[in-house]
Amino acid sequence: MGSVRTVNLELGRPDSDTAIRRLTYELHTAKTLGLAAFKVIHGYGSSGTGGRIRVEARGYLARQKGKGVIRSFIPGEDFSIFNEDTRAAFTRCGELRQDPDLERHNNGITIVVL
Description:
By secondary structure, this protein is α+β, with helices and mostly antiparallel strands. The protein has helices at residues 16-33, 52-67, 84-92; strands at 6-8, 37-41, 72-75, 109-113.
């Protein structure tokens, strides 16, 4: 594997309910495939009125973490070598060290650690 799997929830400009259904599907697929982590592109609401997918996706991931379905998730703005969760994610998935969003503080993405 040369890169971390990326799931683009913005593709097709879905509403937040549709985006969360897709995230649910992709999460189950990633677990079935035995992936250690994947990246979610959800956008950040640059129009000033958006960001609903980001908020809903992160809320969903927080609930999944609470249920033990995922180990953790790292908001893109925290995806840094100085972040403890990021360093722990490197242990599970070394490919994350090569991700182009590392150190970019991109709040339009979230890393999911399985």
